[in-house]
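[Q] Does anyone have a clean structure-token version of this?
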Amino acid sequence: MDLKLQHVVIRTTDIKNAKDFYVNKLGLVMLEEAENFFAAKAGGIRLSFFGGYERQEITEDAKTGVSLILRTKNLDEAMKTARDKGIPVNGEIINIPGFHKFLEIEDPDGNILFLAEYEKDPV
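[A] Here you go.
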């Protein structure tokens, strides 16, 4: 199989909050929208958001899940912008020398995202 990631679906409790976060605060490019749906572009990846879902309880024992890593050219600037826009920033920048440095943020549903500045291409 020759698999390539092109499209990610994200279920959210509130489509308006998700749109405000991903489009207005993070600055992703809007592709299309309907009453309880919108799609945005993150680099070469399409993110499709669907509203009306319930948030799952997260326990200390939770060991699974998926997080998005959003690439940025300047992580320090991205961190400042995130804080200025009221995006919850968890901790400080973590540096993996020779690969990338990254920062953990949360979306309105508590999903963990990472903003990352790469020193070399990850693939």
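[Q] Thanks! Anything notable?
[A] The longest helix spans residues 15-25.
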